[in-house]
Design a protein that fits this description.
By secondary structure, the chain is an alpha/beta fold. Helices cover 52% and strands 10% of the residues. The chain has 20 helices and ten strands. The strands form three sheets. A five-stranded parallel sheet has the order 7-8-9-6-10, sandwiched between helices. It is globular. Bound molecules: adenosine-5'-diphosphate (ADP) and magnesium ion (MG).
Length: 493
């Protein structure tokens, strides 16, 4: 958990001089590479190579060098912080499991970005913190640490309000975030509940609130976590008979920021504890900020008591960004890397990459990688190559039609019957199953899913999902079908 406290040297923009297309010259050889770290990392690379495409391996892993291994912490050197972000975003599971396999125990990874900076922009050399994977396990954070100024907020300092680009799509969410950041617990926006599809800036915005408060009021205990970690910490606390400490920890927080709340679904015990923590903090006028991929009403398998509390404050969504906002985001991100993005290049990327800002960033990362590694000019041709790489790499988004087709073939129910009003058991089951899978495998709202089944409404979809969830517990046959369908659909993906 102390990972986020590690500071790393970061060159804001990697040297572009003297680059052969193999980028390794870019890196200063670590002064004294630790032989254990090197050997083990090389073993990891073999496993990783086996599990990624050659191109991905060459681009993202080959340049990574191990420097140290100490106390279950492996420090590796990467050419720029784009690398660490890219690896974190796309390969964190692979890397984590590889480390575990090679080292035989849980090993944390830390990035160090050191670039040979003979470039004239020496003054842009800056130091900033880059957390590697967040192995944040707050249950282990003792109360003593809570009183300590070094209280681990769980926040990533890279997300702030200044670098959050505001456009029509996120203006309301941004204003609410600013109001809360300036006056935590003192507005009606408690809780502030931000919801949006994936990749549209929820995590960025809610962490920015936390970072702002942490900076302006260092004594305020700000704590960021997500529902998944919250759950696993809760479970750990139960296993170690430390539930009361777990609860105490949360009750002493001034600003609780909890991400991806949808992951509390079906975890009743955890929800129960969260409910009490929520009430306690809310009563004391402590600020609560929540992010979710669905609006409170659309959240599934979450206790009504909690849903109603989520609606107490302000619910605000973030929409897909328009072209101008996408361009502004690209240019700002590039500028942060000391890079000027020509307008036409920004426009090309913005119009050719889907609306998720995460994917937009992915394209920019590719662009910078090719620019840096192959020493090519940033122009439309390069932008085309970068976009092509990203779209090839992005898994195909499943559509509701893919799902209907697969379910129809497997359960042998024609699609038109699935969409019909028939209540016959097998037909209803195929319909409910399709809806449930669509809910899980697509970004569609319950409303859109319902619309794809002859205009059913969102509560029908919700009901279907609950029905299937019940079957999964009580009916082995349905469970087996579901597992088969899930595997097939994901495999096609
Ligand atoms: P979500 O949590 O909604 O899935 P994130 O907050 O992780 O999305 O955003 C994905 C990426 O896009 C992050 O790197 C984030 O910094 C960036 N991003 C999203 N919205 C904006 C914005 N308005 N301005 C700048 N960067 C943004
Ligand atoms: Mg997020």
């Amino acid at each position: 958990m102390n990972l986020t406290e590690k500071t790393e040297t970061l060159d804001l923009f990697p040297n572009t001089k003297d680059l052969s297309d193999e980028n390794l010259v870019l890196l200063k050889k670590p002064a004294n590479p630790d032989p254990v770290a090197e050997t083990k990392w090389n073993e990891c690379l073999i496993v990783i190579k086996d599990n990624t495409s050659e191109q991905a391996y060459n681009t993202w892993f080959k340049p990574v060098q191990a420097i140290r291994y100490q106390d279950n912490l492996l420090t590796v050197q990467v050419p720029s912080h784009f690398f660490s972000e890219w690896i974190d975003a796309h390969y964190s599971d692979l890397v984590k499991s590889t480390l575990k396999r090679v080292f035989g125990e849980v090993v944390r990874l830390q990035y160090e970005v050191v670039v040979d900076s003979t470039l004239e922009i020496e003054e842009t050399k800056a130091t900033m913190k880059i957390p590697a994977f967040k192995f944040q396990n707050q249950a282990h954070q003792t109360n003593k640490q809570v009183e300590n100024a070094d209280f681990n907020t769980g926040l990533n300092p890279k997300y702030n309000l200044e670098n959050f680009v505001v456009g029509d799509s996120n203006q309301l969410a941004n204003s609410a975030a600013m109001a809360v950041a300036k006056n935590p617990g003192g507005t009606n926006f408690n809780p502030l509940f931000v919801f949006a599809n994936s990749g549209l800036g929820k995590t960025h915005l809610i962490q920015a609130i936390g970072n702002y408060i942490h900076q302006e009021k260092p004594r305020t205990k700000v704590f960021y976590t997500n529902a998944e970690l919250f759950t696993s910490d809760y479970v750990t606390s139960v296993q170690h008979n430390k539930t009361s400490e777990f609860i105490k920890f949360f009750r002493e927080i001034d600003v609780l920021i909890i991400d991806d709340i949808q992951f509390l679904a079906s975890r009743e015990k955890t929800q129960d504890h969260f409910f009490h923590i929520f009430n306690d903090l809310h009563q004391k006028n402590k600020q609560i900020v929540i992010a979710s991929d669905k609006s409170p009403k659309e959240l599934m398998s979450i206790d009504e008591r909690l849903i109603s509390r989520f609606q107490w404050g302000l619910n605000v969504d973030i929409q897909k960004p328009d072209l101008e906002t996408k361009m502004a985001i690209l240019m700002k991100k590039a500028a942060n890397e000391g890079l000027e993005l020509p307008l036409d290049v920004a426009e090309y990327i913005a119009s050719n990459v889907s609306s998720s800002i995460r994917e937009l960033e992915g394209a920019l990362i590719k662009l910078v990688a090719i620019h840096t590694l192959q020493n090519r000019n940033i122009d439309i041709t390069l932008a085309k190559d970068a976009v092509a790489l990203v779209s090839r790499q992005e898994p195909k988004q499943l559509t509701i039609d893919d799902i209907k087709l697969t379910v129809s073939e497997y359960l042998k129910i024609p699609i038109d019957q699935m969409e019909s009003q028939s209540r016959k058991h097998e037909i209803a089951l195929s319909r409910q199953m399709s809806m449930y899978l669509a809910k899980q495998l697509t970004q569609l709202s319950l409303k859109s899913i319902g619309a794809a089944f002859s205009g059913r409404d969102h509560s029908t979809v919700l009901h279907s999902c609950t029905t299937i969830e019940n079957y999964l517990v009580t009916d082995k046959k349905v469970k087996a079908s579901y597992e088969y369908l899930l595997k097939t659909l994901k495999g096609n993906n």
